From TrEMBL:
Pfam families: OMP_b-brl_4 (PF25183). Residues 85-456 form the TonB-dependent transporter Oar-like beta-barrel domain. This is TonB-dependent transporter Oar-like beta-barrel domain-containing protein. InterPro entries: Oar-like_b-barrel (IPR057601).
Amino acid sequence: MYYDRGELSAYFSPGYAAGEVLGGPFGVNQAPPFVNSQLCPQSSITEYYNGYIPTCDPNVANLAYPWGKTLGPAPSGNASDINQFLPNAYQVMNGAIPFSMGVYDRKNTLPYSMDYTLDVQWQPRGDLAIEIGYVGNLDRHQVIPLPFNQPNIATPGNPIRGQNYTYGYTVVQPNFTPINLPDGTPFLSTYEGGNNDLRVPYMGYSAEAEDYKTVGIGAYNALQVHIDKLMSHGFETSISYTFSRATDDQSAMGLFYNGDNPNNVQSGYGLSDFDRTHVLNFSYAYNLPNFYTWDTLKGKLTNGWSLNGITVLQSGQPFSVIDYSGAVGSIFYSVFDGITNPIVPLAPGCTAKSATTGASGAFGNPALKSSCFTVPLLHPGDLNGAIPAGDVYETNFLVSGERNIFRQAPQRRADISLAKLTSFGDHGSLRYTFDVFNLTNTTSFDITGNNVTQNAFYNNFPVAGTPALPTNNCTSNPSGQNNGFYTCPAGLGITLHTIGSPRQIQMSLHYDF
C-alpha cells in the first residue's frame, strides 16, 4: 500500500519493514515479508501513479522522480550524498531548478508561555459583583517559518560565485537581449530570477527553502472589567469589557513569513493578527411580572413573558499591506516570492493614520490612500555598489517594521429574543420564542483589500530605459495611462466581504408534556 489519502491502496502491512524500503507514514510500505509482489493498478491515466509506486514510474530515479523503475540502493547514512543530486553553479546559471525543501530546525527548543493575573473582586451588595483584573502573557520560542537560503548581497568588493552584482530582475534591450553589467558580462536569468540562485548560502537549494525555527516572541497585556448583576426584580445582566494589546513576531504557524526581512525577525515585531484593542459585550434578561393568576385566561395571555439579549462591540483586527509581485524584495526573490508576505512601505510624509481615508472601503470609496504607498526602490550603486548601473528596478525589504499598522472597521452586533412561557399545570407547558439576530441589521466588514500587485504582470524582464515608478498620478488618476514599470497599487483599501449575516428573524413553538 502506498499512502495518498487512500487512493493508491494495493497492500496493507502491519508495520514498517526497517532497512528494506522507504516506508510511508503510519507503517505504510511495499516490501517483503509483508508484500510478495508489486504491480501497477489499471488506470486510463497511468501517470497518476508515477512518483507513488516504483514499478509504475518510467523515469530514472532523481530528486524530481524519487522512485524510478527499480528500487534504488539503501541510504548510506552520509548526509553529503544529497549533493550529487543538487545542481551546481554552472547548471543553475543555465536554468537548472534548485531543490526546494522545508525542515524543522534541529536546534529548536520547546515553546512556552508565562501567564500571570491580578484580580480584585468586590461585592457591594448581595446581587451585585464587580471584578477588575490584569491579565498578562509572555510567549517564548514561537515557531516561525524562515527562508534559510535567502540570497546574500554580492558586490564588486565581495563577489559570490563570480557574481559582482545583486539583482533579481534581468534588464533587457527592446529586442529582449540582456544588457551588459559594468563588468562586461550580461544580466543572467536563473530559475528564481536574476542571479538570485547563484547568491544563496547553500548552492543547489532554492532561495525559498524553509526552516521552521523557534525564535519568535509574543506578549499580551489586558485590563478586564466584569460586572454581574444577579436576578432581582425580574432583571439580571452581565457586562464585560477588555482593553488589551497583543504583540508578536508572527501570528500562528503558517507557510509564509509575515514580517519584513526574514533575516531580521525582530523587524516584524508588531500587533498580532488577532489583536482587538476594545471588546465590550453585555447580556441581559428581563422577566415581566405576572399580573394575573395562571388559572385565568388573562393570566395565560399576559404572564410568562421575558426579554433576553446579547450585544457585542469590538475593535477591528490589524492588517498589513503586502505585495509579492517583486515590488518589494526583488533582490531576494524577484517575482517568485512564494514564501514571504513582503510589506509595502508607506510613502515619505505619510503615517498609518494619514494613509486612511476614514471610509470602510465597502461602497466605492477605498479605506486607504494609494498615494501613501510606494515601492522601496534601490538605485544603481546602492548597498556598497551591489546594484548595477542600468538597473533602476530593484527593490529591498523595509528597514523598519510596518507590520499590522492598519486596522479593519469596528464590528458590532445585537441579538434579542422575546419569549412567552404558558403553563397548563401538570398537563405541560408551551414555549414560544421570537428571535432577531443582528437586530439593527448592522454590517460588519472584513479586512479591506491589502494584497496589491505593483508589478502587474509579474514581469522580471524590464526593458532598459523604462521609468521605474508609475507615470500616472496614483491619487487623482490611478487607472490612467502608465508608461512606468511599476503600477499604482490598484484595489487597495476596497472591502469585498462581510463578517456574519444580515438581520435574521425566526420563531419557534415548543410544547412539553
